[in-house]
Each structure stands twice: as C-alpha cells, then as structure tokens.
Amino acid sequence: DLQICQHRAPTCCTKKMEESYQAAVRRERTQSIQALNFELKYMIVGHITAFQEAFESLLRFAENRTSSLFETAYRPMAKEAAEPVKELFTDISLYILGAETTVESAVLHFFDSLFPLVYSRLINPGITDLSEDYTECLRLTRQDINPFGHYSKNLVTELSKSLWASRMLSQALSLGIEVINSTEHAALSKECGRALVRMQYCPHCQGLTLIRPCVGYCLNVMRGCLASVAELDGHWREFISTLEYLTNEVAASHELEVALSGIWSSINEAILHAQLNGPQLSATVDKVCGQPKQQEGNLSSASIVPVKEVTGTQTFVMAHTSLNNRRREFISYMKRSRTFYASIAERLCDGDLVMRDSSTCWNGEDVV
C-alpha cells in the first residue's frame, strides 16, 4: 500500500512511515531555508537597528541643540517652547519610521505653536492675558502674515529632501525582512513533498540509510520545489539596486545629518526675522485678533541676542562617521546577495545532503 517509495524489492516501510517522512521533509525544508536566510536576515535586522540607533542619536543631538538655543538666547520663552520643540522632533522621528505624516505638517505645526510665544514674550513682552482664544487667533494668523519669512519654508524644503530618502530606506529594509520571512513559510506542494521523500527517505525503505542523493537529482528536485521562490530573483536584484540608490541618496548632498544639525539655526533665523518685523506684525495682529491686556508701564521688546554655534560638534561628527561606515558595510554585503534567490536550490543541495566524493548515490529509483 505504499504511495511514494514503491520498489520491486522487499521493503521495510509502511504507509504510516511514508506519512511521517512527508512531515519530516516539510519541517526540514523550512529549517534549511531558515538557516540559509539567517545571515541575510541578521544583516538587515542589524542594519535597521544600527540605522535607528544612529538616527535617534542624531535626533537627540539636534533636539538638544534646539533646546539650548531657547535656553541661551530666548530665555523668556524657553520653558513654554520646550513642548513644541519635543513635538517637532517626535514627528520627524515618526515620519522616518513610516508614519502617515509629512515633514511640512510637522514643521508648520511647530511654527504655529511658536508664533504665540514669540509674539507675547519677545515682540510684545507686556502681554499678560494670553487666553486660549487669543493664542488660537495668533496660531491661525501665522499662516496668513508669515511672521517667520522664508525661513519656515526653507526648513521644510531642506528636511523634506534629506528625510525622504531615509524614510524610504527604512521602509525598504522592513520590506526586505517581510520578503525573507515569507519565503521561509512558502507552502510546499503535495508533489514537492512526495519528491523530497523519494529523494531523502525512500532509500531507507531498502535499508540504505547511509546512501545520499546524486547532485544532479537533488538540483532537479529542489529547483522544482522552489520554482516560486526562484521567481523572486529579478525582483530581489531590483530591490538591491533600489537599496543602493537610497543609501547613496541618504549620503548625498542633502544629508540627513547636516539637515538635522541645522534645524536650530533655521529656527533662530526665523525668530530674528519676526523680531525685526515686530512693529508691522503687531499692527496686523491688532487688526485681526484685537489688542490683548498689557502690563502698566512701558516695556520694551526683548533685545535681540546673537547666537553663536551651539557646542557638541564632536558628538555630531562621531555619529555622522558611524552612520556612513555602517551604510558602506551594509550595501557592500547586500550587493553580494544579489543572486540569493537564483542560487537557493544550489545552496540547499550543498554540504551533507548530497553525495559528492563517492562513486555511488541515489537517483530516486536505485543506487547508481
């Protein structure tokens, strides 16, 4: 009653043993593909982790620089500006990790929150009653009167260019892991399962427990079983090319590191621009939002404080170098994996599975 290991000679197998063999080959094939995938997956996961760690380090560095700007140059509003600054960098982080948000919405939301503070603490420091309605009016007016000049839009442009490639790279790496995981659990057809049993276990039914499959026979069986996986070859090569392109884009002229480290400078220029145009802004705001309550006495607007370069360049340079080195190592490895799916059958038939240095091997029917 054997269905797979039928042979003219007497056999020591039963139908139940054949079923056990079919379960075994399914399990073994999954394990062997997982073993092949391990190094590739390890490299990609390692790079995702390293990329995110280096990115978070740069982001914290840029956030600390921006916070230092308010604490040193704009102390009257430093405490209240802390939350908008934190939100800005959280939104940037979420954007890179693939959240449904945009750089433009993150930056403009920050400047919307910043304008009421700049207006009431720097341009008109005598304002005492900053009600919710008045604050909201200032936020909405910011979009119309553009108190920060071209600096807010410039920041959007610079960050969008540099963060786009980083966002795409992050998503591409996650996609790579999904592809590898899906190949590990690809369904094994009934015919493939039978062919694997015939190749690996039918010799046992003849008492030939030490004989192993012939190389050519193994390749034929594995190529048939892995035809759907091998179809990934063209797409995988294209994926590697895209990774290479994105890696070069991230490291190109609009570098992520440079853009992040320059955020504080753009914000500083924007605030200085608003202060210099204080009288015109006040006149327009009074017409739109009305006049808020003022303290008694003549309070002059806060003086403009020139800001020098915020310290911490060494940390930035180290993070920058580390990220660039990791990129180079990673893309070099990934380029070597271009043929991963084209050669998967050859690699599965390598090693202990087949008989290489002997004159006898199993061809699916007999010892040859």
TrEMBL record:
Cross-referenced Pfam families: Glypican
Highest taxon above the source species: Eukaryota
Keyword Cell wall biogenesis/degradation: no
Subcellular location: Cell membrane
Key words of the record: Cell membrane, Glycoprotein, GPI-anchor, Heparan sulfate, Lipoprotein, Membrane, Proteoglycan, Signal
Entry's Gene Ontology BP terms: cell migration; positive regulation of canonical Wnt signaling pathway; regulation of protein localization to membrane
Key word Membrane present: yes
Membrane topology summary: Lipid-anchor; GPI-anchor
Main subcellular location of this protein, as a coarse class: membrane
InterPro entries: Glypican (IPR001863), Glypican_CS (IPR019803)
GO CC term (a single one): plasma membrane
Family: Belongs to the glypican family.
Protein name in UniProt: GPC5 protein
Native source species: Prunella himalayana
Lineage: Eukaryota, Metazoa, Chordata, Craniata, Vertebrata
Gene name of this polypeptide: Gpc5
